[in-house]
């Protein structure tokens, strides 16, 4: 194109004279200058576009999220009833599904040797008591006789006193032994520890039971109130609840929503799965729910104060850490962060950051620290 313009100008100069040739050369110089400036501007723009990166200004925002966690319903109280002494099941008063009240008789065991030991201990108490009364009376007589000087030797008086004291100790020992056998005899009668319902029965009349049985005789549960236990992951344990009441559903009735109230938190993490147990109470007045059911609990969680929220793409993950890339003085800088609660396509982060920091929209370990970049911020 340049050669064509030059030929045209020389042709006109030849036909129109020298003055026109000067004018043509001047025009040619201006055109060439403009072309060079245009090409240089395109190269500069291209270079600037290669070194720019999408970025945003860091802002704090409120964090509120509705999260669903798996949960389990357990009874408020549960007792596995074992036999304290060996014996045979004589009478069984209840069966599974029966409602029982506190101290209600559940079963009676038969153990003839336990009853015989108790009777023998009672007889030993009577013997020891009679012996003690005899030695006590003898000691009192000697004491009265010793009032007359020279009647009783000092050794005899001390001997009578020692015998009386020994018989008194023997009587107390016999009574203690009787109380122990009486307690064992009471263990033959099994009563309900609290009001509830019998959920298991593993014996029948005539079954031999002992303290070493692996399975309980009966299981009693109080299901008038159920505990809804929710394992909350570590990242959510510091979040607060908008209200102490939550909603949950169970697989048996997926179309029915129930409510439970926060009762307590474990206060420590389960080292096996890094969760904290939050316990909610549900009034199971109509026994519509059963213990052992699995549930889906919906919790509305949030932070008490605003925190940093960034697009998920702004957080890069390596084998060692999580980090974002901050632009400071036109250069990239890696900043270590800890992830918090994810809210939609955004992620809560914690680290050495300040509001209005310029962060890259997409962080990657391919952008090394110290790389010169021009931030491309979104239009307001």
Secondary structure layout:
Blueprint (H helix, E strand, L loop, with lengths): L1 H15 L1 H33 L1 E6 L2 E2 L2 E18 L5 E6 L6 E2 L4 E6 L1 H34 L8 H33 L2 E3 L4 E6 L6 E2 L8 E16 L6 E2 L3 E6 L2 E13 L9 E9 L10 E9 L4 E5 L4 E2 L4 E7 L2 E13 L2 E6 L6 E3 L13 E3 L4
Parallel strand pairs: 1-22
Antiparallel strand pairs: 1-21, 2-16, 3-10, 3-15, 4-6, 4-9, 5-8, 6-7, 8-10, 10-14, 11-15, 12-13, 12-15, 13-14, 16-20, 17-18, 18-19, 18-21, 19-20
Helix pairs in contact: 1-2, 3-4
Order of helices and strands: HHEEEEEEHHEEEEEEEEEEEEEEEE
CATH topology of the largest domain: Four Helix Bundle (Hemerythrin (Met), subunit A)
Q: Could you tell me the number of beta strands?
A: 22
Helix content: 25-40%
Mean pLDDT: 84
Would you tell me the structural class of the helices and strands? alpha+beta
- Cα-based radius of gyration, to the nearest Å: 46 Å
């Amino acid at each position: 194109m340049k050669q064509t313009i030059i030929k045209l100008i020389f042709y006109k100069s030849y036909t129109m004279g020298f003055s026109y040739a000067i004018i043509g050369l001047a025009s040619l110089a201006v055109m060439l200058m403009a072309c060079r400036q245009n090409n240089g501007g395109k190269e500069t723009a291209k270079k600037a576009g290669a070194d720019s990166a999408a970025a945003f200004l860091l802002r704090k925002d409120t964090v509120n999220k509705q999260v669903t966690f798996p949960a389990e319903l357990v009874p408020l109280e549960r007792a596995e009833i074992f036999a304290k002494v060996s014996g045979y099941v004589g009478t069984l008063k209840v069966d599974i599904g029966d409602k029982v009240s506190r101290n209600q008789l559940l079963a009676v065991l038969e153990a003839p040797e336990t009853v015989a030991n108790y009777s023998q201990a009672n007889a030993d108490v009577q013997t020891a008591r009679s012996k003690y009364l005899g030695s006590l009376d003898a000691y009192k007589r000697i004491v009265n006789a010793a009032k007359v000087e020279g009647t009783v030797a000092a050794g005899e008086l001390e001997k009578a006193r020692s015998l009386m004291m020994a018989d008194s100790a023997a009587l107390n020992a016999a009574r203690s032994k009787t109380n122990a056998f009486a307690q064992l005899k009471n263990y033959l009668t099994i009563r309900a520890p609290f009001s509830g319902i019998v959920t298991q029965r593993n014996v029948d009349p005539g079954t031999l039971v002992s303290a070493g049985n692996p399975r309980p005789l009966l299981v009693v549960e109080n299901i008038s109130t159920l505990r809804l236990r929710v394992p909350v992951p570590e990242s959510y344990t510091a979040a607060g609840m908008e209200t102490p009441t939550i909603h949950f559903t169970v697989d048996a009735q997926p179309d029915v929503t129930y409510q439970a109230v926060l009762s307590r938190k474990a206060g420590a993490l389960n080292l096996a799965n890094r969760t904290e147990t939050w316990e909610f109470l549900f009034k199971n007045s109509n026994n519509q729910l059963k213990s052992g059911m699995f549930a889906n609990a919906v919790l509305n969680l949030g932070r008490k104060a605003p925190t940093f929220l960034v697009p998920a793409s702004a957080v890069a993950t390596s084998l060692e850490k999580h980090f974002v890339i901050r632009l400071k003085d036109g250069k990239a800088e890696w900043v270590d962060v800890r992830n918090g609660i994810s809210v939609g396509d955004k992620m809560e982060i914690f680290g050495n950051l300040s509001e209005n920091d310029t962060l890259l929209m997409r962080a990657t370990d391919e952008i090394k620290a110290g790389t010169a970049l021009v931030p491309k911020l979104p239009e307001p």
